[in-house]
Amino acid sequence: MEFQIHITGFVAVYIFMLAAFAGWVIIGHVPAILHTPLMSGSNFVHGIVVVGGIFALLNASTILEQGIGFFAVLLGAGNAAGGFAVTQRMLAMFQTSDQKTTKPKHGQAKAGHAKASSSAAR
Amino acid sequence: MLITVSQLIIGIVDLAAAFLFMYGLKRMSSPVTAPSGIFVAGIGMLGAVLASFLYAFSVETTAKPHLLMNLGLGVAALAIGGGVAWWVGKRVAMTAMPQMVAIYNGMGGGAAGAIAAVELFGDKAHGATQLAVTLLGALIGAVSLSGSLIAWAKLDGVLKKPLRIKGQQIINATVLLGTIAVGGTILFAALGGTVGFIAMPQLIYLFFGLALVFGILMTLPIGGADMPVVISIYNAFTGLAVGLEGFVLENPALMIAGMVVGAAGLLLTLLMAKAMNRSVANVLFTNFGDAPKQKQGAIKGSLKPVEAGDAGIFMRYASSVIIVPGYGLAAAQGQEKLYEFVKLLISDGVSVKFAIHPVAGRMPGQMDVLLAEAGVPYDLIFQLEDINDEFKTTDVALVIGANDVVNPEARTDKGSPIYGMPILNADMAKKVYVVKRGEGKGYAGIVNPLFYGDNCDMVYGDAAAVMGSMIEAVRGLGAKAA
User: Fold this and answer.
1) Alpha helices (runs of H) in B322-452, residue ranges in sequence order
2) What DSSP string describes B111-144?
3) Across the interface, do B7 and A4 touch by the CB < 8 Å criterion?
4) Active-site residue among B14, B226, B368, B404?
5) DSSP states of B220-271 as a string?
6) Size of interface A-B (CB pairs under 8 A)
7) Inter-axis angle of helices A63-92 and B67-77, to 10 degrees?
8) Of B55, B264, B363, which is closest to A27 when you measure between CB atoms?
């Protein structure tokens, strides 16, 4: 059996079209409060380019190709690892009042928080 | 046999990765599920990277003798690039987030450009379509790399002033056309045409050189206030470049991930430009503040400075307070003190909400992140369209380190550079306090009539210090009562 993937002509255009549509729809529902983590998260997703870099490097046969391939993997890995690190840090910070009151640190303001969240619920 | 199995595994893992990326982004669309979203996407990435080493079983015959060396190089590059970026990403301050996103984004663009370079130098792309797509991806990736580096330098304060020269548009257009012409020549030569005056490797060098220069030239004249839009555009660019190189490598995971990000980045760019009341073309091709400024009309009223403590006590006895934070708050590192003050007010029964302007901070949503970092629960944070009608029924609007986003001129004065920008209606609150370092102007460089209004008092000082005095004053009240 043959599992090598071949993408030609219109198949590529269909993939691009559907993916673009999916991206547009997925992001369209993100609230403004998450725009920064989202930008950073989508930045992480295009870090997948590192896979292409590894492919190019493994198939390199001259010093020049090896050098540029190394560069591609280096940059791609930085994109992926850095993008993940900052996105994860930012998203870990988002908490509701309810989540906070379960922590003893914020316990003293419990009544106030409960009031605020009920008024915020609208 | 080995080749078949490795291709099967790569195929399955990449398919899973493409699904996990989209599912992860989808989970990021709500604050409740967002933290797990990035982990979902992370698993996809990890799997795809590990599986990509199985390409070793099916390398081209010419690359076979170098396989061990290439594997070593790959592991080293992953460890160095990933390690350094991870280390920095875990430590960078939240206020420096926009320039970090810019630099990681530039790296992605650079990687896409480098992949294209390997394909071009190794003469691996075949047929007109593949070659043209390779060149297009290379152009976009290279522009994204050098442009993002300039954006980073501007946001980080390395480059302070926008650099503008006469005839910039013409020079930029010439460089871009030159790059495209060289690309066309490469295409022509690779398809068997003869180009007498210059050989192939030099053409490729020239192509990348021109593309990188174009990225620099395009970004240099854009002012610091517009950088968020620029980062977002380059984010979309890199996604597009990754998608195009994915087509060249016949890797659908790259195609899908790249194009999803490309479309998402485009949408995000449009949203941001809309929040600033400018078109994307306007951001890219005209220079903010270049338009001949009309003289502002005389402003009635005067600036009325008050003590921080008095303002704090006034808010303690108000029934509702809306806080409008701006970048000045973050610059003074005053978020934690502010939240301490807010907790005091809330525990005394005051209703407190935060109103965030879409362009507060240095990139959209950055103020939300900075408040979250200080511990502010996100159900106290409201966006412009959700809270703007509440100002007129609110006792106090507390504006901290924000200026242009609460300038009522944007509603009325057609000659103002910010005319038409949606603003927060802080001026409609019964009482307005503005915490500011001094009498300086905002990014747009215009006077804010809000500060001169009858209902507005100014509290001068560093945001963190002012919040400290307010906390003390309110605590002092409690001590006396007890």
Assistant:
1) 327-331, 335-347, 366-374, 384-387, 409-412
2) HHHHHHHHHHHTT---HHHHHHHHHHHHHHHHHH
3) yes
4) B404
5) TTS-GGGHHHHHHHHHHHHHHHHHHHHHHTT-HHHHHHHHHHHHHHHHHHHH
6) 448
7) 30
8) B264
Nearest Cα neighbor of B444 from B305, B277, B304, B284 is B277
Compare all CA atoms of chain B with the CA of A100 and give the residue at the minimum distance. B377
- A81 vs B29, B82, B260: nearest CB: B82
Contact assignment for B25 to A41 by CB distance below 8 Å: yes
Question: Taking CB atoms and an 8 Å limit, are A43 and B104 in contact across chains?
Answer: yes
d(C-alpha B100, C-alpha A81), whole Å: 12
pLDDT tens per residue, chain B (482 residues)?
788 888 899 999 999 999 999 999 989 888 888 889 999 999 999 999 999 999 988 888 888 888 999 999 999 999 999 999 999 999 998 888 888 999 999 999 999 999 999 999 988 877 888 899 999 999 999 999 999 999 999 888 887 777 777 778 888 899 999 999 999 998 888 887 777 667 778 899 999 999 999 999 988 888 767 787 888 899 999 999 999 999 999 999 999 999 999 998 898 888 877 777 777 777 777 654 444 445 555 666 778 888 888 888 889 999 999 999 988 888 888 888 999 999 999 998 899 999 998 777 777 788 888 888 888 888 898 988 889 899 989 999 999 988 888 888 888 877 777 777 788 898 889 999 998 887 766 666 677 888 888 888 888 888 888 999 999 888 888 766 55
Q: Cα–Cα distance between B250 and A12 in angstroms, integer? A: 9
Contact B128, B187 (CB under 8 A): yes
Q: Rounded to whole angstroms, what are the CA distances from B444 to B64, B123, B290, B467? A: 59, 50, 11, 26
Per the CB < 8 A criterion, the answer to whether B242 and B265 are in contact is no
Q: How far is the alpha carbon of B246 from chain A, nearest alpha carbon, in Å?
A: 7
**Cα dihedral B211→B217→B220→B222 (10° resolution):** -90
Domains located in chain B, CATH noted: 102-288 (no CATH), 308-475 (3.40.50.1220)
The helix or strand, by DSSP H or E, that contains position B460, with its residue range, turns out to be strand B456-460
Alpha carbons A44 and B245: distance in angstroms, whole number: 17
The predicted model scores a pTM of: 0.83
Beta bridge partners of B457: B433
The reply to whether ipTM tops 0.90 is: no
Give the residue from B272, B379, B384 with the most A CB atoms within 10 Å of its CB, the best one to mutate. B379
Task: Answer yes or no: are the C-beta atoms of A90 and B354 closer than 8 Å.
Answer: no
The closest of A103, A94, A100, A97 to A119, measured between CA atoms, is A97
CA pair distance B448, B405, nearest whole angstrom:
10
Helix axes of B34-52 and B2-27: crossing angle, nearest 10 degrees: 160
C-alpha radius of gyration, chain A, whole number: 22
C-beta separation of A90 from A63 below 8 A = no
Residues 13-32, chain A: which have Cβ within 8 Å of B? Answer: 15-16, 19-24, 26-32
Instruction: Tell me if chain B has a CB within 8 Å of the CB of A11.
Output: no
Q: Which residues partner with B397 through β-bridges? A: B322, B432
